[in-house]
Amino acid sequence: MILGNLNDINLKNDIPEQIWNALKFVRDNDLNKLDDGRYNIDGDNLFINVMTVDSVSKDSKSCELHRNYADIQILIEGEELMEYATSREEFLPVTEYDATNDFQSINPTGGVSTLILKPNMFAVFYPNEPHKPTCFINEIKTIRKAVLKVHTNFLQKLI
């Protein structure tokens, strides 16, 4: 997991080059001006989903896990609490893995940490890193965010 801010002038030096390169679309486009929806950057290898959603209670959902994609969760407006598990191996499945959507709901059995995102902050979750995004801090709020989906093939191509 990587936590960063898009406005950090040292960002290029502080994150892996392949993540910096994947963020090119975000650096070249004002996310505030994009409508909600999916934007293909490199087909299914690299795309971004922009969304406006209401945050939910962290107790009302499970963590998500992806095997083939890294998630770069970028907050555009509002505030967002996320949980993530520091141990990839210790979890109880809630659902079976859905290969079509590269998604599985799980409950970590330990090592859960919390982070709070403000606008222009992002969190990178590599494949198999459990995370629980879109949770509220004190009350339900509408947030605007983008999720950059980076296929492992694309990550390897960037190395």
What does this structure look like?
The chain has helices spanning 11-14, 17-22, 24-28, 152-158, and strands at residues 2-5, 37-42, 46-54, 63-65, 69-77, 80-85, 91-93, 104-108, 112-117, 121-125, 131-135, 142-151. The chain is mainly β and 159 residues long. A 6-stranded antiparallel β-sheet has the order 1-10-5-12-3-2. A 3-stranded antiparallel β-sheet has the order 4-8-7, with no helix packed on it. Strands 9-6-11 form a 3-stranded antiparallel β-sheet, with no helix packed on it. The longest helix is centred in the C-terminal third of the chain and has 7 residues, at 152-158. Pfam families: DUF386.
Descriptive keywords:
3-stranded antiparallel beta sheet; 14% helix; 159 residues; Jelly Rolls; 6-stranded antiparallel beta sheet; mainly beta; single chain; globular
By DSSP, the count of extended strands is 12
Instruction: Give a short account of the largest sheet.
Output: 6 strands, antiparallel
CATH architecture: Sandwich
The rough form would be described as: globular
Question: C-alpha Rg, in Å?
Answer: 15 Å
Order of helices and strands: EHHHEEEEEEEEEEEH
Low-confidence stretches: none
> Residue-averaged pLDDT, rounded?
92
**First-residue to last-residue Cα separation:** 18 Å
| Assembly form of the protein | single chain
How does the helix and strand content classify structurally?
mainly beta
Top CATH class: Mainly Beta
Share of helix, binned:
10-25%
Number of helices: 4
The spatial strand order of the largest sheet comes to 1-10-5-12-3-2
Query: Could you say what the CATH topology is called?
Result: Jelly Rolls
